[in-house]
């Protein structure tokens, strides 16, 4: 069917009338659509009404509960960011507390062990678990230190440890002696007299003796040096 110029004009006029009617309906009769941006703008206007300047003119007050009910499009994101910030701070504080060195424990007792028998090495290395330097067993002087709670323990041994030729570093001493043979007994007696001199000069307060005794229990030679007999020495005795 052939479209004439007159019919084309009629169709154009009809479409113009239809769009004009739709525009009039949208402007005057259709309810306006509220977007998220409108809600944010409305919320800001309500905050202005609650401000002192907004209330000077005697306008109506809007309750705080109504303001809190207004939807905030960024509320969830702000809350998540705040929670993440708090978690990071707590984790950082815990790491600081974990890496912070604990204050050193106050030393309540210091004990020095003098090893003049092979059993002294067993006492120090295997029972107390202390280190020993140098590791060379033929060294003339060997020593070590450990700390057990508030007690400082030190150990010295070797041929260079001779009465009167080393420094006494503690008022509490454990003396390890060998009393299995006559030669060892005479050597042990020299050490007992040396410790008696230190106690009399107030360089020692407490003395304990660890003795490797005779297999037949012939250890009566130590009796004169025990605490009951030698009261001013203040020594105790352990026979092995």
From TrEMBL:
Keywords: Membrane, Transmembrane, Transmembrane helix. Residues 111-229 form the RXYLT1 N-terminal domain. GO terms for molecular function: ribitol beta-1,4-xylosyltransferase activity. Signal peptide: none annotated. GO terms for biological process: protein O-linked glycosylation via mannose. InterPro entries: RXYLT1-like, RXYLT1_N. The chain crosses the membrane at residues 7-28. PANTHER family: RIBITOL-5-PHOSPHATE XYLOSYLTRANSFERASE 1. This is LOC100145540 protein. It comes from Xenopus tropicalis (Western clawed frog). The lineage of its organism: Eukaryota, Metazoa, Chordata, Craniata, Vertebrata.
